[in-house]
TrEMBL record, chains A, B:
This is Transcriptional regulator. Keywords: DNA-binding, Transcription, Transcription regulation. The keyword Transcription regulation applies. It comes from Streptomyces kasugaensis. It comes from the Bacteria.
Length: 117, 117
DNA sequence: CGGTATCCTCGCTGATACTG
DNA sequence: CAGTATCAGCGAGGATACCG
């Protein structure tokens, strides 16, 4: 998804590219609530594999949406949280969330057309 | 993209699923400006294939984001425009667009991490 | 002009196994 | 606990050709 030729044509395009990963908005949502550890996130998104979770977190980290805090201790502890940029992204997302909630029923009905069997 | 298990976990998730197609936000953008014919859209998004353009338009149509008006004449003429729902989606998207524009430079720099060579 | 019909590729996603 | 490595599958997206 995202960029077509030279990145990017417009702002929405750029933003969607950042949050377009299959689990990213869910991660944003979880982290907005409170910082989480790797294992906590895995438990909250039960269907995600470790590899993909790690991958998406790193992409969000590269985009400075998520901060990764490593505690030098045994057993290891790593905590993920939203940066200021991440928080601002979440705020920019809120009208979209409201729109989605308002039309959720309709969108679930049209879901089959977007994801044919 | 989009729904994981049972659609949908939250509103943003649902919305992103609708606009997550590779070209959809660009189409929304173009149609918000003014209604367009098939060929006009193709010329504005030069890298899109006819098949995919048609596909994405039909998905947006199924979601009642886009209206498809067929004129019974020769040569054929079909005009695509935003519905009220589509317009409301575009409005809900505008903070995200502002966010994207504001951080575009940063996002282009981090682009390689999201789309490794 | 405005599409379908095929075929194909690429890379995202996932399952499993292993490590510091 | 928090990952990395490796391999495999699948499906959206794309190229090309053809049709009303």
């Amino acid at each position: 998804m995202g960029a077509r030729n030279g990145p990017y044509t417009c702002g929405v395009d750029a933003a969607v590219d950042v949050i377009g990963g299959k689990w990213k908005v869910l991660l944003l949502w979880a982290l907005a609530e409170q910082p989480r550890r790797f294992g906590e996130l895995r438990r909250e998104l039960p269907k995600i594999s470790e590899k993909v979770l790690s991958q998406q977190l790193r992409e969000l980290e590269a985009d400075a949406i998520v901060h990764r805090e490593v505690y030098a201790q045994i057993p290891p502890k790593v905590e993920y949280s939203l940066t200021d940029l991440g928080t601002s992204l979440n705020e920019a997302l809120s009208p979209l969330g409201a729109w989605g909630r308002a039309h959720m029923a309709h969108l679930e009905a049209t879901y089959p057309q977007r994801h044919p069997a």
